[in-house]
Amino acid sequence: MNRPTSQRPSTGAPAKHSHATDDSPEAGGFLPAVGLLALDRQYAVLREEIRAALDRVCDTGRFVLGPDVTDLENELARALDVPHAISCASGSDALLLALMALDIAPGDEVILPSYTFFATASAVTRLGAVPIFADIDPATYLVDPADVERKISRRTRAIVPVHLFGRTADMDALLPIAARAGLPVVEDAAQSILSTWHGRCSGALGDVGCFSFYPTKNLGGAGDGGFLTTTRDDLAAKLKLLRVHGMEPRYYHQVVGINSRLDSLQAAILRVKLPHLDAWTSARQANAARYMEMFAQYDLDGRVTVPTDESRGRHVWNQFVIRVADGQRDALRAHLTACKVGTEIYYPVPLHLQKCFEYLGWAKGDLPHTEQAAEATLALPIFPELEPAEQRTVVGRIAEFFRAPQTQTPDRAADTSSALPADGPHFLRRMNAVGRADDVRC
Ligand SMILES: Cc1ncc(COP(=O)(O)O)c(C=O)c1O
After folding, report:
1. Rg (CA), the chain
2. How far apart are CA 38 and CA 35, in angstroms?
3. For 93-107, 378-392, 415-429, which range has the lowest pLDDT when averaged over its residues?
4. What's the Cα-to-Cα distance from 351 to each of 50, 209, 217, rounded to whole Å?
5. Is 165 left (phi over 0), alpha (psi -120 to 50) or beta?
6. Which of 204, 202, 224, 203 is nearest to 213 (CA)?
7. Which of 212, 266, 270 has the most ligand 1 atoms within 8 A of CB, as the residue to mutate?
8. pTM of the full predicted structure?
9. Among 66, 225, 294, 431, which one has the highest count of C-beta atoms within 10 angstroms of its own C-beta?
10. What are the structural domains of the chain?
């Protein structure tokens, strides 16, 4: 098996922080580029194991479901401490399957945030049901429980909180609201694998949890994939049936389901990655804490608001999203793009204002906190392999845009980048790359 070398195709500009030149972060300058993501760094470390796992699946010829899929499901159930983990073809399908298993039917109402990825709502409309959008808490970007409660009607059949950006929604408030109304809770946990709430994993808090293995997620595959979690045996049995066309036994169809199975090749890759997920998550947490320290060193008050951590559980930082004041978000993003710092807007158009949902009759002004967030937020690189020197570049470039003076001296002792070997971290050396952001979708 070949080791990665500098001959391999580069996926980005080199991160040159080997010597303290005038342009180096050590000299107060910036790196030439920082990608929003650098999936190649993860692959560089796991390459041989992944290749061996793929060979093993190809040798067996069991490409759909099969032993790797079953093993992955068992390993996920153990990692999340939930009785049932059921894989499927994507996070979008997980949401659809969850609502099908709950018998959501045409005309039913399902309450969900508008500030989320499209799939949270399209799962509802694909069943002929009606999404009822709730506003968010502007501090956390998570669905506002009080607005959820206000929107419950006699047609409401489910509530779908989204643990957006890796932070668990306020389940202390949401679960009692759902219980009082007798409504099931479907957690959209696509961005929150291993996040917790009072010690319990997201996905195990409501009736069903829906996860995504999309490559940008904290546990990403090499393509599409997803899974569901549930503590309810009845729903687990239904979900297993629905993902295989309602077929049991072979060619006898009990109900009309869909075709949504996880490929064994994906499962084999994900099984290589899963044992690293906890450490990757801790690295994301450390990166978030370091960003907070770095932002605090500049006078950016009133211009940039950084996210906060969650004291009631583990925030897994799938995204680090800042809020930019005074309508400056797009100009800041253009500046960062010009400086080759990767960013993304999650999400520029709230779902209640999407063209395809015009027929639902929502208008601008209906969800003010959601609409403001869509205009002001910007996601910065937060992936586990991100280097402190790269974070300094990101924050420094933002301060540069606002001409914000540095008000505190960086604590070099706490900055691990100064302890790096002179020629930089091993993956940057070997890959000569800082990653790419052009395949980011959701
Ligand atoms: C919040 C949320 N829900 C659902 C999905 C859908 O997952 P997938 O892309 O695997 O279909 C995503 C993104 O992928 C997401 O971010």
Report:
1. 22
2. 6
3. 415-429
4. 37, 21, 21
5. left
6. 224
7. 212
8. 0.89
9. 225
10. 25-45+277-431 (3.90.1150.10), 47-274 (3.40.640.10)
User: Token pair 């018998």 is at which residue?
Assistant: 103
For ligand 1, the distance from its centroid to the CA atom of residue 92, given in whole angstroms, is 6
Q: How far apart are CA 309 and CA 167, in angstroms?
A: 8
Task: Quickly count: other Cβ atoms within 10 Å of residue 103's Cβ.
Answer: 12
pLDDT digit string (tens) for 246-262? 999 999 999 999 999 99
User: Which amino acid appears at position 256 of this protein?
Assistant: V
Residue 13 pLDDT: 36
The answer to whether residue 357 scores a pLDDT higher than 90 is yes
Using the mean position of ligand 1's atoms as its centre, give its distance from the Cα of residue 442 in Å: 6
Q: How does residue 27 score in pLDDT terms, banded at 50, 70 and 90? A: low
Query: pLDDT tens digits, residue range 369-413?
Result: 999 999 999 999 999 999 999 999 999 999 999 999 898 877 654
Distance, in Å, from the CA atom of 352 to the CA atom of 127, rounded to the nearest integer, reads 18
Which atom of ligand 1 sits closest to the CA of residue 95? 4
Tokens at residue 279, please? 């450490």
Residues framing ligand 1 (Cβ under 6 A):
90-92, 116-117, 119-120, 162, 188, 190-191, 212, 214, 224, 226, 442
The residue whose CA is least distant from atom 14 of ligand 1 is: 442
Query: Ligand 1, from 214, 227, 317: best to mutate by most atoms within 8 Å of Cβ?
Result: 214
